[in-house]
Structure of Phosphoglycerate kinase:
Amino acid sequence: MTNSFRTLDDVDVKGKRVLLRVDLNVPMEQGRVTDTTRLERVAPTITEIAGKGGKAILLAHFGRPKGRDAKDSLRPVATELAKVLGRPVAFADDCIGDAAEKAVAAMKDGDILCLENTRFHKEEEKNDPAFVAELAKLGDIWVNDAFSAAHRAHASTEGLGHKLPGYAGRTMQAELEALNKALEAPTKPVIAIIGGAKVSTKIDLLENLVSKVDALVIGGGMANTFLHAQGVNVGKSLAEKDLAATALRILDKAKAANCTIILPVDATVAFHFAANAPSHAYGLDAIPAEGMILDVGPQSVERVRSAIDDAATLVWNGPLGAFELSPFDRGTVVAAKHAAERTKTGKLVSVAGGGDTVAALNQAGVAGDFSYVSTAGGAFLEWMEGKPLPGVEVLRAK
Ligand code: AMP
């Protein structure tokens, strides 16, 4: 897949005005950036373009403003980015029009300029052709380095690719290469671990995965829906009982596709949804009527470990239990540590993504040991659902 995308290897950026779409959507409190992870991720592409004598003109959205709104200005983010890069980042108060055009005209080769929040214009999300044309005026080429926004066909994430020659930035390229190794052209057997709260948010994802992977572990609250559908009494556990037919359909589809489904065989049950609530492991035939399944049980964890041992590639989204509440993070932590160990010894390619998943892997202290951890929430899920991502499709070499 990745080979068919144009990258920075396919263009000489020297002297060119490079419109570079990045993800600057960092967490902020009282006007201060509280986590610079995303800035560190985009730094290599910016440094490379500037280092090769290109003019790096950064385009990004921030938050969900309805029109211009000072609290969603990218100015403080640009200041923080300059610290991460260790070099100056100029700022223009608008991403189109006079302010932007003057700032671009003043750039020298190797300079970096950040334009104001693209979403200050409602035309950004509408992918409005006149707005795209205004943006396109500012650049000679377009580089998309924002995988996390690639599931949206907005002006700066997709529209520009129809107006200017488009290339994947290094962060986008790394993401596409990792995803390619995980599902498109993986080393088999492939296992997926899918957890999280609800089946209803992950139906498309489950349906796509059963036809692609050799084994699928279903954990978390969503496993309860499957267990209920199979006739298990899940007590007061979180379960979407109205989705029993959907769950059975997914199980049938898995069977037809020769995908082994690994559901919990026991459960860790508590009587309150609270940290350190007293809990016990129960077999599936003995879940107390007043009990809540808050994690997969010890035998289930062993099954997941051995399923990971059987796999060469792992794709993971969603925790196996209510991991925010100790000790109900146990299943997730044990499985994550095991996957990390296998990865470190070169026996497993492991790719994980999604907001809670990243938090859970950090909690287990192993995010750095996975082959790749995607911080892109929505885009990662849509990719797992097998949907084409507009911001990626437009980079495909024609
Ligand atoms: P998601 O965003 O769909 O990946 O869901 C993540 C959320 O699912 C986390 O907040 C977990 O606490 C929650 N979760 C996972 N397992 C359970 C469970 N057995 N009961 C209740 N919530 C759960």
